[in-house]
Predict the 3D structure of the following.
Amino acid sequence: MSFDFSDAKARMQKAQDALQRELAGIRAGRANPALLNRVEVEYYGAMTPLNQVASIQVPEARILLVTPFDKTTLDAIVHAINVSDLGLNPASDGNAIRLVIPQLTEERRKELSKDVKAEGEKAKVAIRNIRRDVMDSIKKDDALNEDDMHKAETEAQKLTDENVKAIDKIAAEKEEELLTI
C-alpha cells in the first residue's frame, strides 16, 4: 500500500504559483504588464480588470502603454491607475496612456527585497502547513502499516524540501532582479 500525494503536490504547486503572482506585482524598476493585474476600472457600472478593457504593451524597458479597446473608457482607466497603490503617474494622449516606471532608489530596492523575503516566507509556511496536513492524513490512514507509514512520511518530507527549495529559488530570482537593475 502507498500513500497518494497528488493532492499535496497540487496544493504545493498552487502555493508556488501564488508566490509568483504576488512577486509579479512588486515593481522592479522595469515595465511588466503584471503590475496592472490588480487595477480595476469602472466599466458601464461594473468593476472590470484593466486587462479586459485595454491592451497593455511594453514598448520600452521602463514604459507601459495602455490602449483602451473603447476610447470612452480612457478617463476611467486614468482614474483607476491614479487611485491604485502603484505610485505611477499616467500620461494620456487622448488615444492611449503611457506609464513611465521610475528608477528605484537603493533604499527602495532594499525595502522591496525585504517584501520579497516576507512573501517567500509566507509561501514556505503554506508549504509546511500542507506537509502537516499530509502527515496527519498518513497517521490516520489505517491501511498503512508502520513501514509504509514511515516511507510515506519520508516522501512527504522530501516533497516539502523540494518545494521549499523551489520557493527559495523563485524569491532569489526576484531579489536578484530588484538589486541588479
